[in-house]
Amino acid sequence: MRYCKRCVIPDTRPGITFNENGVCSACVHHEQRKQVDWKKRLKELEKLCDKYRREDGYYDCIVAVSPGKDSYYQVYVMKEKMRMNPLLLNVYNFDWTEAGLHNLNNLSEAFGCDLISLHLNRRLAKKMLRVAFEEFGSPTWYWDRAVYVWPVQMSIKLGIPLVVYGENVNYEYGGSQQEETYSAREQINNDVAKSIPLDFWLGKGVQRKELNPIVYPPLEEIEKAGVEPIYISYFTPWDEVMHLRVAKRYGFRTLAHEWDREGHFEDWKQIDAVSYLVHPWLKYPKFGHRTATDVACRLIRDGYITREEGIKLVKEHDSKLDQRALQAFLDFTGYTTEEFWKIVDKFYNRDIFEWRNEGWVLKDPIWAQEKPRKKQVSPDTP
Length: 382
Fold this sequence. Notes:
The protein is of the alpha/beta class. The chain has helices at about 25-30, 40-50, 70-80, 100-110, 120-135, 140-160, 170, 200, 220-225, 240-250, 280, 285, 290-300, 305-315, 325-335, 335-345, 365-370; strands at about 60-65, 85-90, 115-120, 160-165, 230, 355, 360.
């Protein structure tokens, strides 16, 4: 494994690329922010909002939300700064933390917005979760896919063309997209919820009529309806700590007094649900990194911690799977502990892991490769 010289992301992350100086594409894109005229970008957003602003009292836009801090920031920008009248759309979780349920209800109350939640078919969810876990190591694919698909479906049905999403994952964190754009029309093609042919699910005993929440509308239908999905991260610098500060002003709660999670060094990221946390942990056996790496990279890029501090956090937290999350996952799916680990075992990447002392261990972890450096490496624009 090779690691970025600026942050702590490895080259095993899908879609990530490194330049000739060993700096990842996510850090390069972050550095390019310094050249952006953010006041001009905000004016562009105002102009875009004016295009869709209504005077008849109907909704001006849809904001796709979770109960997370970033969603609070999205609604803050659209409702408080842009003075739009948003309809909030949420795909409901299968289980909840106390903070997550509070934050979802409070999001509507704090900003005075109507909110519609899609409660996915729980029986189907269990079936598809098990299949996606066993076949791909991506148990929450069904839920993640609906997050991208359902708001666009509703935009067409309700006649609300402007759909607001958070960050462009493919650009912000490393992926195939190298040019920044405000348009989220290609979001469905990122690596979060990859397309799986419907025939695959039909072959697993799922009926076509059950799959409606995850069937993306044809491009012709989207264009005919004038649907315009956008990334708010194009118009304002994406900074999770700043989002947390804004969210707290509006009543957002962290997990500080509820749950000290194994494998996490913060209490404000992915805090909505319990069993969902197994999904991001599964990146570890497949790619050798997970949430601690992801959060550390973002904090390094935004200047909140040093790379050396990030390496220590990754070493201490990244491999750990929280036992409460695991038990909730087992309770929902019906697996035994032994069955769970037998399935996980086949996803360990033998190129980067080796079996040692009755457990899988990274062959070349970042803390064994690099010594502390006195000076940060500045990413160069390719």
